[in-house]
Amino acid sequence: MAIDELITEVKTLWKFDYGTNIKALRDLYEVAKKEQWNAATDISWDFEIDKDGDILDPEQDPLRDFDFIQALPDEKRRQLAVRRAAWTLSQFLHGEQGALLCCGQLVEAVPDIDGKLYAATQVIDEARHVEVFYRYIQRLDRVYPIDPALQTVINAILQADLWQMKCVGMQVIVEGLAMGSFKNMKKGTRDPLLKQIVELTAQDEARHVSYGLIYMRDELPKMPEDERNRVEDFAIMAIEAMVRPAVGRGGLGSQMEIYSDLGIDPEAATKEMREKFRSPKFRNARPNTFRDYVIPQLTRIDLITDRTAPKYRELGFEV
Ligand SMILES: [Fe+2]
Ligand SMILES: [Fe+2]
Question: In this model, does residue 247 exceed pLDDT 70?
């Protein structure tokens, strides 16, 4: 049984003043209680998945017109699409578990009672997301291992010593990616079951992002400069760790096994990916959850400063 052990540093804060001090967070807690759903009974699990249909939107697939994919016989192309969808959804599943663990830490680590109560509702939201994605992936194919870049980022969030790093890393960056991806998936999937799942999940993720934005807008201006700089640098580290492989420099990365299993030459595929992804025009032609969701959110909480803006530009973002 695969299990990873991490030693984390969470400073646990008791709060004995139970009155509201950040009203917007208390309001969000009320909304979260009302919008609970049940992954076992609110999803139409009796729908069959049509594995010949488009689980994920081919229009949003950057590899769609690649030679090494076009050269495949139809049957293999369909198998590849199913496995790649299961690989992608597996990353969401692992990300959901990461969010569950992180949010448990936030219950302990945030200093405000409103922040603790709200985070408690998010723990159950994330539990539901783990449940729902695991159940769906099992029907589709199988769970694939976590991508190393995603694991690096989630481990860094879990091991961060400042709660503000956890909040920016998970609630603003990772949750922003999840919310954007689920919205894109909802638009593009032809599978009614997955559509239902990502619709309900995206509603929760939108609330999770709101928590990060409300809390950090309140908190960041109060932080001492050295700590605030550490939070800014942490955001860049997290984004860079995920964006660099995503722009194709890493080639097939952890999807290698899927391609070689189907008899695709991994070297030829890697070469084509590296060549095409090098072009910014190619990269910018499709939905990009970092550009469309994460960067605007970091801007809203003023986390991109004169000091750090050049690093975002180096990664290809217009800030
Ligand atoms: Fe989630
Ligand atoms: Fe979430």
Answer: no
CB-proximal residues (5 Å) to ion ligand 2:
99, 175, 205, 208
- The pLDDT assigned to 1 comes to 57
Q: For residue 285, is pLDDT > 60?
A: yes
For residue 132, the ligand closest to its alpha carbon is 1
Ligand (nearest to CA of 130): 1
Spacing, Cα 231 to ligand 1 middle (Å):
22
Q: How confident is the model at residue 252 (pLDDT cuts 50, 70, 90)?
A: low
- Domain layout of the chain by residue ranges: 23-314
Which CATH code for domain 23-314? 1.10.620.20
Q: What is the DSSP string of 187-250?
A: HH---HHHHHHHHHHHHHHHHHHHHHHHHHHHHGGGS-HHHHHHHHHHHHHHHHHHHHIIIIIT
**Predicted model pTM:** 0.94
